[in-house]
Design goal:
C4-dicarboxylate transport sensor protein DctB, membrane, 589 residues, 20% strand, alpha+beta, Heat Shock Protein 90, binds adenosine-5'-diphosphate, ATP-binding, 5-stranded antiparallel sheet, HisK_dim/P_sf, nucleotide-binding, Beta-Lactamase, single chain
Length: 589
């Protein structure tokens, strides 16, 4: 499941990264394209400024000629009287050679060429009528005319500049300078650039590309065609539409066009004074190549990054799996170690168990031995005494001293009672004591009884007794005899512990608590050894010599007290002696 989630998240990370990378690459490509295009537009604009300058310069260089000729007196005479033709021809020829223009010529008021710089050429203009040319009609009506056309006689294209010749307001004719723009066009061509000039009708009359020459940028209307034909402007040229497909208009005079499957930046700038448009056409391929290069670099970089990140991920995965394998090995080794340890522990445990069992067995046997020795010792004395008393009873009977025989019997009875009390104690362990019916017991009565039974011991060993007992009777629910027995056991133990002490004080404090009564018995005896503490209430545990104790007192007391829903605890005191505390539930009167 976790792996599935990891795979899904990896898939999305990849998708998002790819999307981001694609967006970035696309943006970079776009930016590169726009930047290169802007550069191309800027460079194209600069080139157009240059070409416009050269064009204007080429034309203005000869603009003065028609005017100068119109002021020539010989020409005026020629126009008025048809004299001077040779003189004017020579003049025109020499001036034309000097100025560098294509042809200079003079037309009469009806458009006949009277003199020309090419008077010696077979294709001389002399004798031809060019009255149909707009530059002539313009000169006639507007003083001067400008016109680009293919020469009607020579077939050579040129720019015609005319000026009217007047005398006292009478139109005599016109002087014309024809300028050859082919060198300009050749210069553009040599520059390797596509520079075009179109006229007001959109006809490309100057073009550094030969195949585009005399093609039109827009479809010519019938009217336009008629007018062009009338002026014989472009001779027999078909003036076909140049199939430029506009792909995108970037701004005024800036567009992207498709020609012959290739894209070009097509810049146009109007030449206001001439009524023409100058065009600069640059192939868009470098722009596309640059953006494509950026795109390819972007894609390669993206793929490289992707490959690197995948490789990095693979390496990380391998490292993780290696680490995991190491960890697994370590865990396996640890498991093996643990198993070995567990097996060892189990073995030790079973050995311990065995040993324990043996010890328990040994302990039981020891306890049994101890108990047997105790019982033997306890019972031996009365048995010996009974035997002695019985023997002396026989003698007394023989002597007829019946009074003394009675005493002997009484002694025997006491001894058997003593024996019975010993065996009665043992009986507590032989069977479970049947629960006696609980009765109301006044604690003070039990304590008095116990103290009475042990009173002789106090005097024998010089023990002083201090009691703190409430005056009001403290009532318990239980068995008076058994509670008394517990108190006797504790007092006896305390006396035994103090036998050899310097200070022999026994304190008994009874406190009536809200729910319980607390009985504290403190002695100034030898105290309890720390390592015996855990065994204190174990049956047959005794530190006393054989015959002095059976090790049953505290265990019997424990049993009695817990039977009565109470508790008993013993501890050694820091300044010597021991303290036993009993708690028993009280009955509220
Ligand atoms: P016994 O008196 O026959 O030895 P108990 O069960 O009454 O048997 O006591 C067990 C052991 O507890 C004693 O042998 C003794 O070592 C220890 N003991 C009991 N009471 C005291 C006490 N007040 N001071 C010191 N040791 C005590």
């Amino acid at each position: 499941m976790k792996k599935l989630f990891r795979n899904i998240s990896l898939f999305w990370v990849l998708i998002i990264s790819l999307l981001l990378a694609t967006t970035l690459v696309w943006q970079a490509t776009r930016w590169a394209y726009t930047d290169a295009l802007n550069t191309l537009i800027k460079v194209g604009g600069e080139r157009m400024t240059l070409y416009s300058g050269t064009l204007h310069e080429a034309l203005s260089r000869y603009a003065y000629l028609p005017y100068v000729l119109s002021q020539n007196i010989d020409i005026k005479i020629l126009l008025k009287s048809s004299f001077n033709a040779d003189l004017v021809n020579d003049y025109l020829q020499s001036l034309n050679a000097e100025a560098g223009s294509d042809t200079l010529y003079v037309m009469s008021a009806v458009g006949d060429t009277l003199a020309a710089s090419n008077w010696q050429d077979p294709q001389t203009y002399i004798g031809h009528n060019y009255g149909f040319r707009p530059y002539f009609t313009d000169a006639k009506s507007k003083l001067k005319g400008r016109f680009f056309a293919i020469g009607a006689t020579t077939g050579k294209p040129g720019y015609f500049m005319s000026h009217s010749v007047c005398d006292n307001g009478q139109f005599l004719g016109a002087t014309i300078a024809k300028v050859d723009l082919t060198p300009l066009q050749d210069d553009w061509h040599k520059g390797g650039e596509t520079v075009l000039v179109s006229d007001a009708n959109g006809v490309l009359f100057l073009s550094s590309r030969e195949d585009w020459k005399y093609r039109t940028l827009t479809q010519l209307s019938e009217n336009q065609r008629t007018m062009i034909l009338a002026g014989r402007q472009y001779g027999a040229q078909a003036l076909e539409l140049l199939p430029l497909e506009t792909v995108e208009v970037l701004a005024e005079g800036q567009k992207i066009v498709r020609f012959d499957k290739a894209l070009y930046l097509f810049l146009s700038r109007p030449q206001e004074d001439l009524g023409w448009q100058l065009h600069h056409v640059a192939p868009l391929a470098p722009v596309q190549e640059r953006s494509q290069a950026v795109m390819i670099i972007g894609i390669v970089l993206t793929l490289l990054l992707l490959a690197l990140s995948l490789y990095g991920r693979e390496r990380r995965q391998k490292q993780i799996s290696r680490r995991k394998a190491h960890q697994a090995e370590a865990i396996q080794a640890m498991n093996l170690r643990l198993q070995a340890e567990i097996a060892e522990r189990n073995r030790t445990e079973s050995v311990l168990h065995e040993t324990q069992k043996e010890l328990v067995q040994a302990g039981k046997l020891a306890a049994l031995g101890h108990m047997a020795a105790g019982i033997v010792h306890e019972l031996n004395q009365p048995i010996t005494a009974i035997r002695t008393q019985a023997a002396s009873g026989h003698l007394l009977l023989d002597r007829g001293e019946t009074g003394k025989v009675r005493e002997t019997f009484s002694a025997i009875t006491r001894m058997t009672e003593h024996m019975a009390s010993i065996t009665a104690q043992l009986k507590t362990f032989a069977h479970k004591i049947p629960p006696k019916r609980k009765e109301r017991v006044v604690l003070q009565d039990c304590l008095d009884g116990a103290l009475n039974m042990t009173a002789s011991m106090f005097s024998d060993f010089g023990i002083s007794l201090q009691t703190e007992v409430p005056a009001a009777p403290v009532v318990l629910s239980g068995d008076q005899v058994r509670i008394k027995q517990v108190l006797v056991n504790l007092i006896r133990n305390a006396v035994d512990a103090m036998k050899n002490s310097e200070k022999k004080v026994l304190q008994i404090k009874v406190t009536a608590l809200p729910q319980d009564v607390e009985i504290v018995i403190i002695d100034s005896g030898i105290g309890i050894d720390e390592h015996n503490m855990g065994e204190l209430f174990t049956p047959f545990f005794t530190t006393k010599d054989v015959g002095e104790g059976l090790g049953l007192g505290l265990s019997i007391s424990y049993r009695i007290i817990t039977d009565l829903d109470g508790s008993i605890k013993g501890k050694s005191l820091d300044d010597g002696g021991a303290c036993f505390t009993i708690k028993l539930p009280r009955i509220q009167k």
